[in-house]
């Protein structure tokens, strides 16, 4: 097998990184080039992403590649889902894009369903209803007479917009489009009735492309800025979860995956979409995967809960008040794991945790309203979060098992959440499944391997996953304390069934 270097841009909702991945003698090696913050900008009563800052960080990573004389084969970009950029007829970006955490979509779903009923929308798309889905963002913008949408010639999802800034090509990549609630998963095209309700047509979106498709080369301008030649840009799995699932090192199909980071996404990989009364009832989603597969999953709030709490706690080596906590997240998790479990639970997906002014306050208020013990201090609040996430995983897994077309034999966990060994053991205890963790940088690895496929270095997802499995250290967690966790789950269900 020949060797090659691939440049992966992996953008999450709180941070981003650029990584060079190299395939050498059938194994994957990677090195981080840059890491940076991705900050939400609050102004004028709205929350935005800084698309120009992200573009600048990509250029910075490419400059470093040129300075280090790294010969890269191609460039690929993955990001979070649903958010998009409006581009004018003159080709200019009209404004920074709204963040999915912006409250302008409050009540947008209910208003949209007055035009097209909720069940019909689900039958068309098979997508989990969340108020920030692109369809409802577009509706909210149209109702507000948003100037950027009014002037938009093209709507480009965030990874597509960044590829446009690099290449000048307007495309609509399948996996990122599938997060929008405007895609028909059967035809793999935009549903024209749904977008007509927000005053748009297919013409407003780029050309359809699939993962591992080369869309063009970086422009002369980008070449001059970075010092690189005409490097190809590959449409990888633009949605970070699709890229992460591509990296799950399973050698067969009988697995569930948990992409564990700011969000937790729990699901299976299927050949066809699963759209049924049951999937509608449980609000499961059918998003695009690689090689025409479907990611049948449910979005669960993830480490966002703890990340926000840590911003409120003052870091100190010796916490003595409820407003303080150790700076080291590993110490926080360890301390929480040593206290008695199940003193209180939250529903991680309750809207009150979407973007509160105080996450600590929101958790305490939720527990108070539900007649539970109110946690105080970093140890009790962290334990409440971890217990609640583990139980929510169990609850969603039970739903999933009832709809999966095959037996689920193990759970592969990918993403930064795998660093939290306490949560990983809790996930095994709660679900009763063997949990296999790794890779940590799953999205970047999936991104790299899809570029390798575009270069003809791997044939399919199974060969990709075999290389990944041979290239990383996997950690296995076996279920323990069965009766304790069964009793805890019954307690959880009494609150949130």
Short summary:
By secondary structure, this protein is of the alpha/beta class.
Top keywords for this entry?
23 strands, seven-stranded mixed beta sheet, single chain, alpha/beta, 497 residues
Describe this structure as you would to a colleague.
The protein has 497 residues and is α/β, with parallel strands linked by helices. It is built from 19 helices and 23 strands. The strands form seven sheets. Strands 17-18-16-15-21-22-23 form a seven-stranded mixed β-sheet, with helices on both faces. Strands 3-2-1-6-14-13 form a six-stranded mixed β-sheet, with helices on both faces. α13 (329-337) crosses α15. It is globular, with a radius of gyration of 22 Å. The protein starts with a strand and ends with a helix.
Low-confidence region ranges: none
Kindly, what is the distance between the CA atoms of the first and last residues, rounded to a whole number of angstroms?
52 Å
Q: Largest sheet, described in full?
A: 7 strands, mixed
Helix content: 25-40%
Binned strand content: 15-25%
User: What is the chains' assembly state?
Assistant: single chain
Note the topology.
Elements: E1 4-11, E2 15-24, E3 27-37, E4 40-43, E5 46-49, H1 51-67, E6 72-78, E7 84-87, H2 108-112, H3 118-125, H4 134-143, H5 147-151, E8 154-157, H6 158-167, E9 171-173, H7 174-177, E10 183-184, E11 189-190, H8 192-196, E12 207-209, E13 213-217, H9 220-226, E14 232-235, H10 240-246, E15 256-260, E16 263-270, H11 277-281, E17 285-288, E18 294-301, H12 304-312, E19 314-315, E20 324-325, H13 329-337, H14 359-369, H15 377-403, E21 410-414, H16 421-431, E22 434-437, H17 442-454, H18 461-469, E23 475-477, H19 482-495
Parallel strand pairs: 1-6, 6-14, 9-12, 15-21, 19-20, 21-22
Antiparallel strand pairs: 1-2, 2-3, 4-5, 7-8, 10-11, 13-14, 15-16, 16-18, 17-18, 22-23
């Amino acid at each position: 097998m020949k060797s090659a270097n691939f440049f992966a841009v992996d953008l999450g909702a709180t941070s981003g990184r650029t990584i060079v991945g190299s395939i050498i003698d059938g194994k994957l090696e990677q090195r981080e080039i840059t890491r940076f913050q991705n900050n939400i900008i609050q102004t004028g009563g709205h929350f935005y992403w800084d698309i120009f800052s992200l573009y600048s960080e990509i250029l910075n990573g490419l400059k470093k590649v040129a300075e280090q004389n790294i010969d890269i084969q191609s460039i690929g970009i993955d990001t979070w889902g649903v958010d998009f950029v409006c581009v004018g007829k003159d080709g200019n970006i009209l404004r920074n894009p709204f963040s999915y955490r912006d409250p302008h979509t409050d009540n947008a779903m209910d208003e949209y369903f007055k035009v097209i009923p909720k069940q019909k929308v689900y039958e068309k798309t098979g997508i989990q209803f969340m108020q920030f889905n692109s369809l409802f963002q577009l509706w909210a913008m149209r109702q507000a007479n948003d100037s950027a949408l009014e002037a938009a010639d093209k709507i480009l999802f965030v990874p597509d917009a960044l590829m446009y800034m690099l290449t000048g090509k307007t495309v609509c990549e399948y996996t990122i489009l599938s997060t929008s609630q405007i895609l028909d998963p059967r035809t793999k095209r935009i549903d024209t009735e749904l977008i007509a309700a927000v005053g748009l047509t297919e013409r407003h979106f780029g050309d359809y492309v699939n993962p591992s498709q080369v869309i063009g080369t970086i422009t002369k301008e980008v070449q001059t800025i970075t010092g690189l030649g005409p490097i190809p840009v590959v449409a990888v799995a633009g949605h970070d979860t699709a890229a992460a699932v591509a990296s799950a090192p399973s050698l067969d199909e009988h697995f569930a995956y948990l992409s564990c980071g700011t969000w937790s996404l729990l699901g299976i990989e299927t050949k066809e979409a699963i759209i049924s009364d049951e999937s509608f009832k449980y609000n499961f989603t059918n998003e695009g995967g690689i090689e025409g597969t479907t990611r049948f999953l449910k979005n669960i709030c993830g480490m966002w809960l703890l990340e926000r709490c840590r911003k409120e706690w003052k870091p100190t080596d010796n916490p003595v008040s409820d407003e303080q906590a150790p700076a080291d997240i590993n110490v926080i998790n360890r301390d929480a794991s040593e206290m008695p479990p199940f003193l209180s639970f939250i529903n991680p997906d309750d809207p009150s945790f979407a973007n509160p002014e105080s996450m600590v306050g929101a958790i305490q208020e939720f527990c108070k309203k539900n007649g539970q013990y109110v946690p105080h201090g970093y140890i009790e609040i962290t334990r409440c979060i971890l217990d609640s996430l583990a139980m929510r995983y169990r609850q969603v897994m039970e739903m999933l098992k009832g709809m999966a077309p095959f037996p689920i034999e193990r759970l592969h966990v990918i993403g930064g959440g795998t660093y939290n060994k306490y949560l990983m053991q809790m996930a095994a205890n709660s679900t009763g499944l063997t949990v296999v963790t790794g890779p940590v940088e799953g999205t970047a690895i999936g991104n790299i391997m899809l570029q390798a496929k575009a270069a003809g270095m791997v044939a399919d997802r199974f060969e990709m996953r075999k290389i990944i499995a041979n290239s990383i250290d996997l950690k296995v967690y076996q279920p323990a304390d069965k009766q304790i966790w069964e009793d805890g789950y019954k307690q959880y269900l009494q609150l949130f069934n």
